Request: fold
Amino acid sequence: MLALGMIIPVLPKLIEEFQGGDTASAARMIGVFGTLWASAQFLAGPVLGALSDRFGRRPVILISNFGLGLDYIVMALAPTLGWLIAGRMISGVTSASIATAFAYVADVTPPEKRARSFGMMGAAFGIGFIIGPAMGGLLSTVSPRLPFWVSAGLSLANGMYGLFILPESLAPDRRAPFSWKRANPLGALQFLRSHPQLFGFATIHFLYNLAHQSLASVFVLYTGYRYGWTSTDVGLAMTGVGVCFAIVQGGLVGPLVAKFGERRMLVTGLICGATGMAIYALAPTSAWFAIGIPIMALWGFYGPSSQGLMTRRVGPTAQGRLQGSLSSITGITGIVGPGLFSFTFATSIGPMRHWNMPGSAFLLASALLVVGAWIGVVLTRPGESRA
Reply:
């Protein structure tokens, strides 16, 4: 996650360089990059998940880390935009291995402790995205391609650590045969429909990730338009978000889930996310907007709680397939979300608008999370089957 975070602030600049300094063309091309990356994740997620169920988690994690390291080298040396696009698509495939890491956690953690373990994973992700962009920005002052080289070194070092230290988590007697019929997005959806509750949780997962796309799509443009924020202001806000998120995931998830249960914390996380989005949408000043950041961070209760609930509903031979299916759903939201929220924001501030509501994209995201919370309440109410 540190390696991924490092290229966030430099990739747009490199694309702009290939576009001859034309910012408008670069912006359109960044949208293409995002769609291709999400599409690669959408297609690769179920395949990697099924492969990890067949051959074990360790080979998939190792190949993905070494592949990601070589991919960053390709991007660092890319002589043309085409090479950069190819590298980004490879990154989308190898980044889908994050799902395999979650399956690994499910393998080695008792069901009652999984939410805490998934919370620690979330905290690691948050810390990576706090430090990564800052490091990438600093290294880019030396050379715009240096962050790619450092990211390559980190990924390859990660692979070497796994090669010599990481044990396999999935015993041979718990492995499942590989089938292309199941290792594809349609097969992933059929798998999720195999249990009514599992499909319901997958629906919440879709709404959660779709709402999250609003932040990547309009956060920078919205805060600049409404509050006059500079790049520095945005960077400070993102750091604050990352710190709050890491505190919630690493320090609060474990004890609060143990005390109140996964069901309550799943719904609490979604309600807090909806509240934070509504504050973002309606905040009249930067100070009011900042109040929404710690509230939004409590959204972090959702992920570990939902993972804990979903991993209980499949056997040890299908944990990789479950995570691959969820990764594919995330890829769908990455394809749909940017256009949905960008169009909503553009319409709300454009000359043809019928109301003055620049925060409409965040209100839409808030509504999606409210629907997700309602599904969560119905799905996990006492008396429902937990098989």
About this structure: The first helix runs from residue 2 to 6. Residues 299 and 335 are 22 Å apart (CA to CA).
